[in-house]
Specification:
Layout: H1 2-25, H2 31-52, H3 62-70, H4 76-100, H5 117-140, H6 149-168, H7 174-183
Helix pairs in contact: 1-2, 1-4, 2-6, 3-4, 3-5, 4-7, 5-6
Length: 195
């Protein structure tokens, strides 16, 4: 559990720090800022999964943990123990970024560009499904490409972020959505769409 906590903190700290830097450089959502944010999340996950894969599994996401439990790729007791570690890690990562960088935290997930709650639910569901499916096919299902699964997993998050971040903030991870909301504090009435 400790490795999963540390790995989740590191993954989200680097992703949040990259997003914070992008917000400092350009307060407007430009194409460059969008790609910068997506790369921050995708590359941070790639590196963090690769570093922690053999220790804790490198899950860093309650949705992934739940999917592994449902598909019987993880014992339910281990899943129950990992969930609070991942959620707490999201809060710790957001708090560290808030303390270390100037300005308000820039990683709170919100709907934008006229995105409705229903649209947000489906956008987040599709982004999360891509990430979970990639993990199930590359890491849970063992084959000769499994050792390089972190590359595909990081790329899957990058692609999911490209599709989601502009409209929903691109959480694709309940711990990622909750952490900044707790630290900000900013809980929109539709926060449940990220779970």
């Amino acid at each position: 559990m400790f490795s999963e906590f540390i790995g989740t903190v590191l993954f989200l700290w680097f992703a949040f720090a990259g997003t914070q830097a992008a917000a400092q450089i350009s307060p407007e959502m430009t194409p460059q800022r969008l790609v910068f944010i997506c790369l921050s999340f995708g590359m941070s996950l790639l590196v963090s999964v690769w570093a922690h894969y053999r220790i804790s599994g490198g899950l860093f996401n309650p949705a992934v943990t739940l999917a592994l439990v449902i598909t019987k790729n993880m014992p339910w007791l281990r899943g129950i123990l990992l969930l609070p570690a991942q959620i707490l890690a999201g809060i710790v990562a957001a708090a560290l970024v808030q303390c270390m960088f100037p300005g308000p935290i820039a990683t709170v997930t919100t709907l934008s560009l006229g995105t409705s709650v229903a649209q947000g639910i489906f956008i987040e569901a599709f982004g999360t499904a891509l990430l979970v499916f990639t993990i199930l096919m590359l890491a849970a299902e063992k084959h000769e490409a499994t050792p390089i699964a972190p590359v595909g997993i990081g790329l899957a998050l990058f692609v999911a972020e490209l599709a989601c971040v502009l409209y929903t903030g691109g959480a694709v991870n309940p711990a990622r959505a909750l952490g900044p909301s707790v630290v900000a504090p900013d809980f929109p009435g539709y926060h449940y769409i990220y779970w």
